[in-house]
Amino acid sequence: MVFVPDWRREMQQYRIEHDPIPDGAIVANLDEQEENNSYGVKPYYEDTTFTCQDCSKHEVWTAKKQQWWFEVAKGSINSQAVRCGSCRQRVRDEKDAQKKHMAEVAAKKSV
Fold first, then answer.
1. Cα angle for residues 101, 104, 106 (degrees, 5° grid)
2. What is the spatial distance between Cα 78 and Cα 24, in angstroms, rounded to a whole number?
3. How deeply is 65 buried, as exposed, middle or buried, from its count of CB atoms within 10 A (0-12, 13-18, 19+)?
4. Of all helices (H) and strands (E), which one includes residue 70?
5. Model confidence, pTM
6. Burial of 81 by CB count in 10 Å (0-12 exposed, 13-18 middle, 19+ buried)?
7. How far is residue 109's CA from residue 64's CA, in Å, rounded to a whole number?
8. Integer angstrom CA distances of residue 97 from 58, 87, 105
9. Nearest one of 57, 38, 35, 58 to 48, comparing CA atoms
10. Exposure of 28 by Cβ count < 10 A (0-12 exposed, 13-18 middle, 19+ buried)?
11. How open is the CA angle 101-107-108, to the nearest 5 degrees?
């Protein structure tokens, strides 16, 4: 569990009181967000649309996926989605193939 300074909780409470949470949004758990050396907090998650930087497909980054990214995966609070699911998988597969290739090259050099 991450220590959450009181000022972050106070800021979240202030934003909730003065900027009501939109319908369908998920209230953030600040105890689970990673500290980011910023005065900003993400008090709630709501569906946002973006265009994939690789294939230009329009995609929705759901509030539920954002909650996982920021609270479970501990992603930077300033990050945002830039690739659709299929392009993310393609990039992961390419990185895995490169790691496998590099391991094979290293194994051959050590023989």
1. 110
2. 21
3. middle
4. helix 63-71
5. 0.71
6. buried
7. 46
8. 27, 15, 12
9. 58
10. buried
11. 95
Coil, strand, or helix at residue 57?
A: coil
- pLDDT one-digit tens code per residue, 21-33: 888 899 988 888 8
Positive or negative: CA dihedral 63, 64, 69, 72:
positive
Whether 16 contacts 43, CB under 8 Å: yes
Which residue type is seen at 60? Answer: V
Q: Is residue 2 over pLDDT 80? A: no
**Token duo for residue 16:** 């909730």
Phi-psi region of 24 (alpha: psi -120 to 50; beta: other; left: phi over 0): left
